[in-house]
Amino acid sequence: MKLLIKNTTIVTVNDQDQVLEHADLAVSGKNIVGVGKAPLDFIPDRVIDGKGKLVMPGLINAHTHLSMTLMRNYADDLPFSDWLFKKIKPLEDHLLAEDVRFGAKLGIAEMIRGGTTCFHDMYFHMDEVASEVESSGIRACLTSALFDVSGNGEALLAQGCRLHKDWNGRSEGRITVQLGPHSPYLCSPEYLREILIEGRRLNCGIHIHVSETADELSESRRLHGCTPVQHLLNLELFSLPTLAAHAVHLEEEDFKLLSENGVSVSHNPGSNLKLANGFAPVEKMLKHSINVALGTDGAASNNNLNLFEEIHLAGLIHKAVNNSATALPAKTVIRMATINGAKALKLDQEVGSLETGKKADLIMLDIRQPHLVPCHDPLALLVYSAQASDVTTVMVDGNILMEDRQLQTLELSSILEQAAHQSIDLIERSQS
Ligand code: NI
Q: Looking at the predicted structure, is the pLDDT value of residue 380 above 90?
């Protein structure tokens, strides 16, 4: 299929942060073959009128637990430890594969409708998530959650490695698999060493929660005599490509260590705000050249998978926290939600910006709306004015997954019904 989007506004997120007006974008098969102008010999099978629209790279959600959509609005206004150990964990102890399947369907539908084309997931029963990624057409990097505090660490690690064997590179490369040690506080040092050995064998990256809460930092000091970042460095975990989710509570030395070791961070402002975990020092991370991406975390602590909301939050809160209206300018926040996410997932050669030769993972927004007119600065529009519901069209790998807000690969009404039913079933099961 050769597709031409004509006469549109393009936010490229290339190295120059170029914004093109009255521009065309050409897609052939899976790939972008022209940005600004189509190649001279390009004969499209289909032309989309881009007037009044804005085209940008698909958003990348760098940290989530997709199937926690079933726990949305179930445990709220609680301190982190009560939220996790008293409300969420009892549900997760009763989690079945079908819970994860229906939660994943719901989450993928929500993400596509909000302009997310790729996500980095950590959860259980991940074959179910992989199957839903395969059939829905979205892109994902998947990890099976690993921890050994419950005594079944070996079995979980074996599952995580098997997931890699079965799914890495599947769906014509749309699915990649990494290892997902949950956190330094749920994984013993011995277990993290085993994960490191497996990660080296599989030649894959690591997705781990790091320094999410003040308690985690003080416990790490008490148990290991150092911060979680220094603890993971001592264990050589950063010798694998690492994505650290949260990194809210960092000490001076940690910035240097994250930067020197090429560790990416997923900043999840909605979750941090809701669980009162503090404000991640993103401005300072960026000054240390740390690659910072954006994530939603799970829908049980957010309570949605709406990256436009995270973009908006990131664009605002760091100005307030740093007492500086110039902190995290719009173009920086858009990079966090796109190309920085791609870098964090080691997919930046393929996606994250609109450039010739990259995969056609892109979204279109309808900018002829009262809250988006006039459009003096498309980047500011995207950060400070746009809503997830402004996304009309979503494409991954050159395939259209949503057009005119209609999902093309998923049947929304049955997904909503099934997920609501499955959620009640899960809660009842956990209480019986
Ligand atoms: Ni998380």
A: yes
In the reported structure, the alpha carbon of residue 107 is separated from the centroid of ligand 1 by a whole-number distance in angstroms of: 15
Biggest alpha carbon distance in the chain? 66
Interhelix angle for 126-136 vs 153-167, to 10°? 20
Distance 324 CA to ligand 1 centre (A): 28
CB hemisphere CA count around 185 (13 angstroms): 17
Secondary structure of residue 189 in the 3-state scheme: helix
CA 413 to ligand 1 centroid distance, Å: 28
Ligand 1 centroid distance, CA of 425 (Å): 24
* Residue 210, token pair as written in the block: 């790091």
Q: Residue 361: pLDDT above 90?
A: yes
Report how far ligand 1's centroid is from the alpha carbon of 299 (Å): 10
User: What backbone phi and psi angles, to 5 degrees, belong to 386?
Assistant: -70, 155
Distance (angstroms) between ligand 1 centre and the Cα of 389 equals 25
What's the predicted TM-score (pTM) here?
A: 0.98
The tokens for 52 are 């009044």
Helix crossing, 330-337 with 307-321: angle to 10°?
A: 140
Which residues line ion ligand 1, judged by CB < 5 Å? 297
- In this predicted structure, the answer to whether residue 162 has a pLDDT above a threshold of 90 is yes
Cα angle, residue 280 at apex, residues 207 and 274 outer, rounded to 5°: 90
Q: Which residue has the tokens 């979750």?
A: 271
What's the one-letter identity of residue 209?
Answer: H
**CA 242 to centroid of ligand 1, rounded, Å:** 15
Could you tell me the CA-to-CA distances from 324 to 189, 318, 332 in Å, in that order? 40, 8, 15
CA-to-CA distance for 51 and 48, rounded, in angstroms? 9
Q: Going from the N-terminus, what domains does the chain have, and what CATH number goes with each?
A: 2-57+351-407 (2.30.40.10), 59-344 (3.20.20.140)
Alpha-carbon span 287 to 210, nearest angstrom: 20
